[in-house]
Amino acid sequence: MIFDAATALIWILYLALFPMAFYWFRRAWRIFVNKDYSEVAVKKGLSPANPEKWATVTGVVNMLAGGAATWIIVGVALYIATGILIGPFNSFDGWNAYAGSTIWLKLIIDFIIKRQAHPIVFGKKNKETAQTCF
User: Fold this and answer.
1) Residue 54 counted as domain residue
2) Which domain holds residue 108?
3) N or C: which terminal CB in the chain sees fewer CB atoms within 10 Å?
């Protein structure tokens, strides 16, 4: 293995999956077990009017993303150590595609949830909605 910029980026992506998976599982744990909805659909530091409504969706997205990241971590390590395949991890292209797709889909789905939880209010705003929007 030749150590160059591409190899460094591969290792950075692989090692970055560890804290991402931990963070995503921790968020799901806080939502489902601790019933802490402070991180659900937060936009500009404000929680939505009804965070319980969006908690299940956010928790499931975090569980799926954390599970996918863990699957990639275990699959790459298992293939390198023993040659056992539990997914498309025999080449860089396979696990890199799954890791990148997991990260981007998690960001996009979280963005969609935030936009749905904080709808845009058109028309004249009264004092109450003007204070909660900004």
Assistant:
1) yes
2) 50-120
3) N
What contacts 24+ positions apart, CB below 8 Å, involve 66-71? Answer: 66/20, 66/21, 66/22, 66/24, 66/25, 66/28, 68/98, 68/102, 69/17, 69/20, 69/21, 69/24, 69/99, 69/102, 70/21, 70/25
Kindly give, in sequence order, each residue whose CB lies less than 8 Å from that of residue 60, ignoring residues fewer than 6 positions away. 28
From CA 84, how far away is CA 70, in angstroms rounded?
A: 16
pTM as predicted: 0.81
Q: Within a domain: residue 132? A: no
In angstroms, the CA 36 to CA 33 distance is: 8
